[in-house]
Design brief:
- By secondary structure, the chain is an alpha/beta fold.
- It has 21 helices and 10 strands.
- The strands form 2 sheets. The protein has a 6-stranded mixed β-sheet with strand order 6-7-8-3-9-10, sandwiched between helices. A 4-stranded antiparallel β-sheet has the order 2-1-4-5, with helices on one face.
- A hairpin with a 5-residue loop joins β1 and β2.
- α3 packs antiparallel against α4.
């Protein structure tokens, strides 16, 4: 459905403002006070020495550049009269000095640009790495709320805004500030009156800058959010292209994308309008100040109270003083864009995992001899998602080491929630989940991931070779071990038949192989990882009958001797279980062996009869 937009007083929808519940409005994460400045300091702290050298290069370069008008003044007032008196030395010295300043300024500018580029690239490299590492460290519930499109926007569009500031904007700012300082000092030294007028003109210019900063800050926050919304919509549509085509969503998506695109266009227009206001006002002040100084200076030259060379130098300095005003506007443009982007990045980096690493971790006890599984205990567990009520009211359950437990029930009964708590994608609101007597919250993540592995319905494969995908749980595994795991699962034959065998690139999401084959690769991955506890979350629900049978044979191999929790809608999967739990509304309503429950008159017996009838 196309989201509505809010309407202003006149009743016409305003694409610049998000409607209630609009994804556009959920882009901003809260940024703690001072987090943005702290992030910038932490990025620059390791580069203090290089930042100091870069600043020194620019200071010297500006000093050399600003020597030019003084040489012109000296030439007009001293060197030219000396030349007319047949003394060529002063004029030659001025020419040599001017040429030397030009060469030195060019060399210093090159050195500054090279040094600044290194600082900029190191900062951006660090920042992108932080975003990627932090996004991976954040808990599953964060990623369920904050879409991948927004993360892409943070690490691309927002980082690019910061790059523009570091590569161009900061140089402009420092150049403008140094120009103001040097030129104001030179004008005051050349002539106190002219210098005073020039310095006084900076007051209204400063007021214009402050006004522009306040107005532009709001505009650039809105613009950053708008482009993120465009990226989110694009990524979401392309990731869901199959249902888009199946349900003919092209026109509706086009309307949504057009609305978000127009909003981005209008926020861009607002930014340009604010820039135009600033440039117009600053040029008006600058032109008025230059006209007043030139007229007054000319009058004083005429009555002999001001040297012509001093006036010429003053006019050259004035041009250099006011010309950077437009460049200052460009810097403010880059600064506001980068500030809004950095604020969003700081908000992302300020998010803390809801499933944190333990302050002091505990190791799991050694596994029992000949028993690869571990005991699992849900002790007084309660849990509810942020978006809804309590899913597990109070939940107590013990799974013996090496036991395969099938969990069945209607949609929303809490089956997948149980699996996510056991995998520690979430922490319970109350109570504990224990693995061989150790609270999952006391286990370091590497220890937990070695002990508990989940195979999901999707069987996600990464771009890369089949061998790489099987070895994800054990990157150091030898090729022989990878192939042995595939053989035990029954995947070796189809893998060997691929164009490059185990070195075949499965491409994006494993699209080069079928769903059943992807599931077999996922089981080979789990077998190679050798977990003590294996969770299968509806691992056969998307497969056809032949594919399901192949996967069930693989499951029998993988589950042997391990503690396993099998979440299943298809009751054919239950046949391999030692024990069946039937869940309703977050509670266990039946618990027993499959044959015992089938022979009874309870909920599982009804489900089993309905399943058998569906096969008839």
């Amino acid at each position: 459905m196309t989201a509505a937009t809010t309407a202003p007083a006149g009743g016409k929808p305003d694409d610049r403002r998000p409607a209630p519940g609009d994804p556009f409005d959920r882009d901003v994460l809260p940024t703690p006070p001072g987090a943005t400045a702290a992030l910038l300091r932490s990025l620059l702290a390791p580069l203090k020495a290089r930042v100091a050298v870069t600043t020194l290069l620019l200071l010297v370069q500006q000093a050399v550049v600003q020597a030019g008008p003084l040489l012109v003044a000296y030439a007009i007032d001293r060197a030219v009269p000396a030349f007319r008196a047949r003394d060529q030395g002063p004029l030659i010295a001025v020419g040599a000095g001017y040429l030397g300043c030009a060469l030195a300024a060019g060399a210093l500018q090159w050195a500054f640009v090279a040094a600044a580029a290194r600082v900029s690239q190191d900062v951006l490299l660090d920042l992108r790495g932080r975003i990627f590492r932090h996004a991976q460290a954040l808990s599953v519930d964060f990623h369920e709320r904050y879409t991948s499109g927004r993360l892409i926007s943070r690490s691309t569009t927002d980082v690019e805004s910061l790059r523009e500031l570091l590569d161009e904007g900061l140089q402009e700012l420092v150049t403008v500030v140094l120009s103001f300082v040097y030129i104001s000092a030179m004008l005051l030294w050349l002539d106190l009156g002219l210098g005073g007028v020039a310095v006084a003109s900076l007051v209204p210019l400063y007021a214009l800058v402050r006004l522009y900063q306040r107005r532009a800050a709001r505009v650039y926050r809105a613009r950053s959010t708008a482009i993120a919304a465009v990226i989110v919509k694009f990524v979401e549509t392309m990731n869901g292209i199959r249902p888009v085509r199946a349900f003919r969503r092209e026109a509706a998506n086009d309307a949504d994308f057009g609305r978000l695109n127009r909003r981005h266009e209008r926020t861009n227009g607002d930014a340009l309008l604010e820039m135009a206001r600033y440039v117009t006002g600053s040029r008006l002040v600058a032109n008025a100040a230059v006209a007043a100084i030139v007229l007054w200076g000319a009058y004083r030259v005429a009555d002999g109270t001001l040297a012509l060379g001093v006036l010429a130098a003053a006019v050259l300095y004035l041009r250099r003083l006011y010309d950077p005003i437009d460049r200052l506007g460009m810097f403010l443009n880059s600064y506001q864009s980068a500030a809004a982007s950095l604020e969003k990045i700081a908000g992302l980096l300020a998010q803390t995992p809801s499933v944190p690493e333990p302050a002091v971790s505990r190791p799991l006890p050694p596994r029992g001899s000949g028993i690869p599984g571990r005991e699992v205990v849900f002790d007084g567990v309660r849990f509810g998602y942020r978006t809804g009520g309590e899913v597990l009211p109070r939940f107590d359950l013990t799974l013996r080491a090496g036991q395969t437990v099938a969990v069945v029930g209607s949609t929303g009964a809490g089956k997948s929630t149980l699996a996510k708590l056991l995998a520690r994608f979430y922490d319970p609101s109350d109570g504990r989940v224990l693995l061989d007597g150790v609270d999952l919250r006391d286990l370091a993540v590497p220890e937990l991931r070695r002990g508990v592995v989940m195979v999901t319905q999707e069987a996600f494969l990464f771009s890369g070779t089949v061998a790489d995908n099987i070895a994800i749980g054990r990157p150091d595994a030898a090729r022989a071990e990878i192939e042995q795991a595939a053989k035990e699962i029954g995947a070796h034959d189809f893998i060997s038949a691929l164009p490059d065998g185990y070195d075949t690139d499965v491409r994006k999401r494993g699209g080069r192989i079928s769903a059943g084959q992807r599931q077999l690769v996922a089981f080979a991955r789990a077998l190679l990882a050798d977990p003590a506890v294996l969770i299968l979350d509806e691992a056969t629900s998307s497969l056809d009958v032949p594919g399901e049978r192949a996967v069930q044979r693989a499951m029998a191999t993988v589950l042997k001797g391990r503690t396993a929790v099998v979440i299943a809608h298809r009751l054919s999967t239950v046949e391999i279980a030692d024990r069946v739990l039937v869940m309703e509304h977050g509670r266990i309503v039946e618990d027993g062996e499959p044959d015992e429950l089938i022979a009874g008159t309870g909920r599982f017996a009804e489900l089993h009869r309905a399943w058998r009838d569906s096969l008839a």
